[in-house]
């Protein structure tokens, strides 16, 4: 159904924490489509708009119900690349420059 998922990207180049690229600032899925498929679709859009740029996001393991926080991102080809000082998982995917 229209409106049952949202995905927001933000271009970030100079962050105090050293993260740069295209940041997923919001992702929510309330619909029947698998979250990993929505992440793949959002990646394709970001690759088209910002080719070759790194995609990244932060996941708060305490704020999700999953025993595997960020699973939909890793299932879509992302990888865990660290933790923030505040205890958030950092996930990333290298951008595709062929789009």
Task: Explain briefly what this protein structure is.
The chain has 99 residues and is α+β, with helices and mostly antiparallel strands. The protein is 20% helix and 32% strand. Strands 1-2-3-5-4 form a 5-stranded mixed beta sheet, covered by helices on one side.
Protein architecture, described:
- This protein is α+β, with helices and mostly antiparallel strands.
- It contains two helices and five strands; from the N terminus they run ββαβαββ.
- It has helices spanning 35-49, 71-75; strands at 5-12, 21-29, 55-59, 79-83, 89-93.
- The chain has a five-stranded mixed β-sheet, covered by helices on one side.
- β1 (5-12) and β2 (21-29) form a beta hairpin.
- The longest helix is centred in the middle third of the chain and has 15 residues, at 35-49.
- The N and C termini lie far apart (27 Å).
Radius of gyration: 13 Å
Percent of residues in helical segments?
10-25%
- Note the beta-strand portion: 25-35%
Write the element-wise H/E pattern from the N-terminal end onward: EEHEHEE
| Biggest sheet details | 5 strands, mixed
The count of helical stretches stands at: 2
Q: Low-confidence spans: pLDDT under 50, at least 5 residues? A: none
Average pLDDT over all residues: 92
**Overall geometric form:** globular
* Strand count: 5
Distance between the termini: 27 Å
Sheet/helix structural class: alpha+beta
Q: What topology, given as strand order, has the largest sheet? A: 1-2-3-5-4
């Amino acid at each position: 159904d229209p409106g049952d998922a949202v995905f927001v990207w933000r271009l970030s180049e100079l962050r105090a924490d050293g993260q740069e690229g295209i940041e997923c600032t919001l992702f929510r899925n309330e619909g029947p489509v698998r979250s990993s498929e929505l992440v793949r679709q959002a990646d394709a859009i970001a690759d088209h708009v910002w080719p070759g740029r790194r995609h990244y996001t932060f996941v708060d393991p305490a704020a999700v119900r999953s025993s595997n926080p960020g699973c939909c991102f890793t299932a879509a080809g992302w990888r865990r690349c660290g933790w923030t000082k505040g205890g958030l998982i950092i996930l990333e995917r290298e951008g595709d420059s062929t789009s």
